[in-house]
Write a structure and sequence with these properties.
This protein is of the alpha/beta class. The chain is built from 13 helices and eleven strands. The termini are far apart. The C terminus is likely disordered.
């Protein structure tokens, strides 16, 4: 049976329009039932603008409060007890939804998810994992990309195990290549955090290839890149900015002359494939790994396509039992690693 996914209908910058349109696309394309969480009158009014919505597995679940991008996460989580995030995550905890998707305040989403769902045993801090396209046409993931600004070496150790499990589960690679993001490939390069983390990661029963640099996000030489949330978020935002620049520059260049315009028309399919390949909305959102439930966080600027794919990722995450696999990977005595035991020594 298709999964049931709870969607924060009020999270994005232009809510609830992208959420409703994305939910309609996900329900139509994947057969997923989407529970749209938000003020009933507001969400229902947006749904009513789409005639096809009444024939699709969509349902509005009322939540009277919204956590905005301007709210301070810690205060909002405590004060807004009927927020769209809290209501949606409660549906996951109660088993009424297989996963939750939001384009809202990342800090608030993480804090609410930890409070409502709780962390898996052996996980000190959940991590956001973002997917990157690579030159060979494969994918790589980077974690953490913003959930934890300040990290300890044992946090990165746990990120490596969770990233390994997630990549194997989603992409089918038996021994993903794990790299530690630093300023040079040599073991001695980096700051105190990366140097200490290197020593921990090299002892893991994973395919750790050592330090990698920023360019390795895209060249296909590594599958999982581990970083603290500050560095990871900067890398993510720079990458998205460069992708936007490439799309814009290419579009402007193709308009420059009649000859180029004719060439574009003749090669439109190839250019369309190129645009899709570097479009972050095709990869959905970033899963918050290490929770007792599927929670996907996507951009506040998300369009309908991004929402649709985030719903898909949430459904796949739940159906493939990724949380259960991560828990086994972190469990003491499991061949992957007794991370919980190692973390206690720090």
């Amino acid at each position: 049976m298709p999964s049931v996914i709870a969607l924060d209908a009020m999270g994005s910058d232009r809510a609830p329009k992208p959420e409703v349109e994305g939910a309609i696309q996900a329900a139509r394309q994947y057969g997923t039932k989407v529970l749209l969480i938000g003020p009933e009158a507001t969400v229902s009014a947006e749904l009513a603008r789409h005639r096809a919505a009444s024939r699709l597995p969509l349902e509005v679940v009322h939540a009277s409060e919204v956590i905005t991008m301007h709210d301070k996460a810690a205060q909002a989580v405590r004060a807004k007890r009927d927020s769209t995030m809290r209501v949606g995550l409660r549906l996951v905890r109660e088993g009424r939804a297989a996963g939750f998707v939001t384009a809202g305040n990342t800090g608030a989403a993480m804090a609410t998810a930890k409070m409502v769902l709780g962390a898996l045993p052996g996980v000190d801090r959940p991590a956001l994992a973002a997917v990157f396209p690579t030159a060979p046409g494969t994918a790589a993931i980077l974690l953490d990309v913003g959930a934890n600004v300040d990290c300890k070496p044992h946090n990165l150790e746990q990120f490596a195990v969770m990233g390994d499990v997630y990549f194997r589960s989603m992409f089918g690679t038996r021994e993903p290549r794990i790299g530690l993001l630093s300023i040079g490939e040599e073991e001695s390069k980096g700051n105190e955090l990366t140097r200490e983390s290197f020593q921990l990661l090299r002892r893991l029963p994973l395919n750790f290839v050592g330090n990698v640099e920023g360019r390795d996000l895209f060249n296909g030489h590594v599958d999982v890149i581990v970083a603290d949330g500050f560095v990871g978020n900067v890398a993510l935002k720079i990458s998205e900015g460069v992708a936007g620049l490439v799309r814009h520059a290419l579009k402007e260049s193709l308009k420059a002359t009649i000859t180029r315009q004719v060439g574009y028309l003749l090669s439109r399919s190839a250019f369309s494939d190129f645009k899709k390949r570097i479009d972050h909305t095709e990869y959905g959102g970033a899963p918050l790994l290490g929770l007792k439930g599927a929670c996907i966080i996507t951009h506040g600027s998300s369009n309908a396509n991004a929402i649709k794919n985030a719903v898909r990722v949430a459904a796949e995450f739940a159906q493939r039992g990724i949380n259960e696999a991560i828990e086994r990977g972190l469990d003491i005595g499991h061949p992957k690693l007794a991370v919980a035991e190692v973390a206690q020594t720090h």
